[in-house]
Description:
Strand order of the largest sheet: 1-4-3-2-5-6
Number of strands: 9
Shape: globular
Helix content: 25-40%
Bound molecules: adenosine monophosphate
CATH class of the largest domain: Alpha Beta
Order of helices and strands: EHEHEHHEHHHEHEHHHEEE
Distance between the termini: 40 Å
Radius of gyration: 19 Å
Strand content: 15-25%
Number of helices: 11
Amino acid sequence: MLVxxxxxxxxxxxxxxxxxxxxxxxxxxxxxHKGHLSLIERARKENDFVVASIFVNPTQxxxxxxxxxxxxxxEADLAMLRSTGCDMVFTPSTEEMYAQNIQSESFDFDxxxxxxxxxxxxxxxxxVGTIVKRxxxxxxxxxxxxGEKDFxxxxxxxxxxxxxxxxxxxxxxPIFRETDGLAMSSRNLRLTKTQxxxxxxxxxxxxxxxxxFQTEEVLAIKERVTTIFDKxxxxxxxxxxxxxxxSLRPVTNKDPxxxxxxxxxxxxxxxxLIDNMRL
Length: 279
Ligand code: AMP
């Protein structure tokens, strides 16, 4: 497995492969878990050459503490990637990606960026757009793999590709969960024992919502979710929304023609976890 911290090495190696080699790409921020590896495995099945990147992107963090406390472990990550059959890993420094200007570009994702995560994390999707664009320009993949765990990000990346002349297919991959339903996330490593015991409630709530959605109105469901977390000693609800899957527009009245999804963000102390489920 090739490990390159420099843009130049990656672009040269990709050029050497030639245009007949299908390149699959999985961007990550490291602290890898089985969710990330499921993306690598999918890329492995569908491409000739698999590239992953590990880069904790400063411009997509709205809170300094979240960035500094983000889990990091390069050696363990590389071992996992090697065992999953990844061919190349791009591990740039912040200077390599941003030089001296650690700033986001400003993007218009046709309003997708203003909802949910965009509303609650100022500038987050400008940071995501900036780094994904730069990574795509370096790796020039045929296909890029993103998890439905970050469903809004997946839709934003699809929009980014739609608005640029890149021949890249964006592939959404299912959410990989712990046995108790908790969506795998690098941030789970930071949970205390008490918080870890409490957070399966996020998935449990989504399961209940998906049942209630068959018979109940959206407003009643939202009120019930708010009540569950209002009383909770460890968890705090940041937002809960039911939205149409592609436009991500909030749904107020059910319409059988719409494919809807429930989206949730919850704080356990200062650790913020997100999850979602198709209804
Ligand atoms: P991250 O390292 O958190 O930026 O995630 C890198 C990629 O892995 C993103 O496309 C995520 O959506 C995806 N991902 C993270 N956690 C999971 C999971 N539990 N299941 C599936 N994909 C995931």
